[in-house]
Predict the structure.
Amino acid sequence: MSTTPEAIQANSALRHDWSTDEIEQLFNLPFNDLLFHAQQVHRSHFDPNQVQVSTLLSIKTGRCPEDCGYCPQSVRYDTEVENEALLPLEEVLEQAQAAKTKGSSRFCMGAAWRSPKDSDLDQVIEMVKQVKALGLETCLTLGMLTEAQTQRLKQAGLDYYNHNLDTSPEFYGDIITTRTYQDRLDTLQHVRDAGMHVCCGGILGMGESRQDRIGLMQQLANQPQHPESVPINMLVKVEGTPLENAEDLDPIEFVRSIAVARILMPASHVRLSAGRETMSDEMQALCFLAGANSIFYGEKLLTTPNPAADQDRLLFKRLGITAV
Ligand code: SAM
Ligand code: DTB
Ligand code: SF4
């Protein structure tokens, strides 16, 4: 594959027709060529020294009926997660204010539901309105949504909805059996139709093959519109889940995947999401060089640890990165 400036310019247009062969060719580039290509695409759409920061809060934790093989919150696995009912509004607002004070621009609220009940949604909508009123962007991840529910969330002013495809259609059934790939695509369509921004990505390091990583990237890039936000998670191996002993993914392959996501979805924020706790500073720096320009900020993801905010501030300082 050519890496001349002209070829890169042509390739950096927003495309929705990526073939698996083309994506494979990107993955197969010499590492330096791939990163150079990704960095050029990145620079044509973003300030390369700015990284968006979001903070996560689990607003309802554990006892989820789904069987996602990576997830510590599934009721089917014996993990150490402490179950918690829907948090009171005041507590959510306190956490949101703290996130804002620490420099987060987006507040993402996650619930361990297969899909929300309409009565749950009433309470969540109040959270969205009030978090927005603090001057933060809002994001929710609550599981599957109906068309009517997405309309209600849009009316409440929700900015982003996170719903991941997680992996390729072929590998998906090895990880989750309680909802289909098509169910996920349907929810994404409802979110898009309601006019909200889509946050959609996946997890690497679940024992999937290179071909599955290619399949995931293809699914993400070939949606009618690229997700505005693309979280790439490295599996956090949690004791008690079926994937607790999954084989480590080669970090270089992870960086390659970030670079491919950047090239395929040039104008999207690619988020270096779960799994940073076990990544070296050098690996994270390579991910930023490959085009990652968003992270989760704060000590905790939903239930698992994330690097301390101080540690991230120091890393950004060493790299000359500004949090936005
Ligand atoms: N229950 C909702 C759902 O599944 O859509 C929302 C919350 S769920 C925890 C959000 C996402 O977190 C999942 O789609 C998955 O991609 C990611 N996730 C969950 N457990 C993870 C783990 N152990 N490592 C990496 N990512 C994980
Ligand atoms: C996403 O792709 N990653 C975040 C967010 N979307 C909701 C969640 C990561 C969860 C990691 C496991 C945990 O902390 O429970
Ligand atoms: Fe439930 Fe979401 Fe965890 Fe799946 S990923 S078990 S749907 S909380």
About this structure: The chain is about 40% helix and 15% strand. The longest helix spans residues 118-133.
